[in-house]
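Um, can you check?
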Amino acid sequence: MTRALPAFLLLFFLTALSAAAQAADGEASASAEADGSLNALLAEASEAVRSETYRGIIVYLREGQLDTLRVIHRRRDGLEQERLVSLTGQPREVIRRGGVVTSILPQNKVVLISQRKHDGLLGSVAQFSADRMGEHYRVSDMGQRRLADRVGRLISIEPLDGYRYGYRMLIDDETRLPLKLDLISDNNVLEQLMFTQVEFPKSIDDDEFEPGYDIDGFRVVKHQAVQVEDKPVPEDAWKPTDLPPGFELAEDGVRRVTESGFVRQMLFTDGVAAVSAFIAPAGLRKPLEGATTMGAVNAYGHVVEDTQITVVGEVPARTVKRIAENLVRETQSASRNVSP
């Protein structure tokens, strides 16, 4: 018995190691499957924001202020439409038809018409890239939750560094539409969108996307859209260097503001967050120098010789600063050292 005991223990130890290795392989496989499942779920949520037909009531919390909105949305024959009506505060209404956004301010008797590619109440979700976020975010399943009489799955998207915010998204089990979206910084909710009522009719009539106000006689103001070009129009071209980890140039466009002056707009994204940079001739308006914050939105501006650079986005202050300070003219050296 005494001599058999060490052999038994060795056999038990080896068997335990083998079982542990198999369990580890199984856990790794399960983890990979779980990651793939969550990525697929996020991709479906991104598509649902664009494609689902729904109407409901949403509350929007930002900087301690709570707004309540009625939202109506559909995509038909490839055209996405959305109508938002404010139910609190100053009366206002926003109607989006494709990339054309019409904002109605009845108290001022003004209609603003602009063209914006990335828009909509849940527009940020529509731009999420589940495939790209894995390197700079930790995605985890926080289980089922119930909201607006519907059951959904709560997904945590946690940043792995200080260059981006985190998100928590409650995704409807049936339609995959996000029922709730939190923007998180250091476990604090900076902004929150949440349905309190929602329904998914098979169709929505055209007249539900018509203005609720009689706008005859309102002053109409049109904003020129940024025209995206394969090659920037200005000869004085700028380029990004030393971007924050994970951020890439996604779009680069220009628009004319004077006969000889252009505003160049660059859009950077890490697959989740989006940051816009505006490069304009100095003197067009009062320059922004240094950092400024409005809720979750941070901006950083500075003047380089005859050019005003302004970078804006729902990202931490260090991110917009780093991008702003690393936009250089093509003729300048691409190597610049800047503290993060």
User: Anything to note?
Assistant: Confidence is low (pLDDT under 50) at residues 1-18, 23-33, 228-233, 333-339. The CA atoms of residues 281 and 307 lie 5 Å apart. The helical segments are 4-51, 123-126, 130-133, 317-324. The longest strand covers residues 65-76.
